Amino acid sequence: MRTFRRICIFCGSNKGTDPAFAEVARGVGEHLARSGIGVVYGGGKIGLMGEVADAALRAGGQVFGVIPQKLRDVEVGHDGLTELFVVDSMHARKMMMAQLSDAFVALPGGFGTLEELFEAITWMQLGYHRKPVGLVNAGGYYDHLLTFLDHGAAAGFVRPTHRPLMLSAPDIVALLEMMAVVEIPHFSLGHAPPRL
Fold first, then answer.
1. Model-level pTM greater than 0.90?
2. For the segment 104-157, what is each residue's pLDDT rounded down to a tens digit?
3. Which of 73, 17, 19 has the alpha carbon at shortest distance from 43?
4. Per the database entry, which stretches of residues form a coiled coil (predicted)?
5. 35: how many CB neighbours lie within 10 A of its CB?
6. Other CB atoms within 10 A of residue 188 CB
């Protein structure tokens, strides 16, 4: 069974139209902090990102932000974190977030959240890391995405052994339980890729 020191949270820099999304984000931050799990995230103080960070900090948790210099003003970099890393690119941001984390969790979000999520699971699929990846499917937000992944598997573009690796649960408690025990297969690429 895995234990987690820090978990990377991908989520929106907006709050969405349903106040329940912000409530879920606060619940995730608080639960991780009370469980002794540090939060790694995109470093902003607005949207769901800010809700997760502030809730974790209020609950006494450690929060590590990683933000590109170009986005520090746009996403309003959070200056009250345990540590805020300012990097020079989105690529550097995602690499550092991956290196700091033991698992990846996506909350509701838009293009950026989806891009980060799919990069994390692709890196796992290719053997660059063996860290669990999952969704908090708050209010069914990701229902259509999960259906599409099933469609991709049925159409032969997502391998049957890979489809179960995108974990999903309605809340963070259930998702962490799944992440602690999920079996991640070793993928043979003919050579060992660098680990994240």
1. yes
2. 999 999 999 999 999 999 999 988 999 999 999 999 999 999 999 999 999 999
3. 73
4. none
5. 15
6. 8
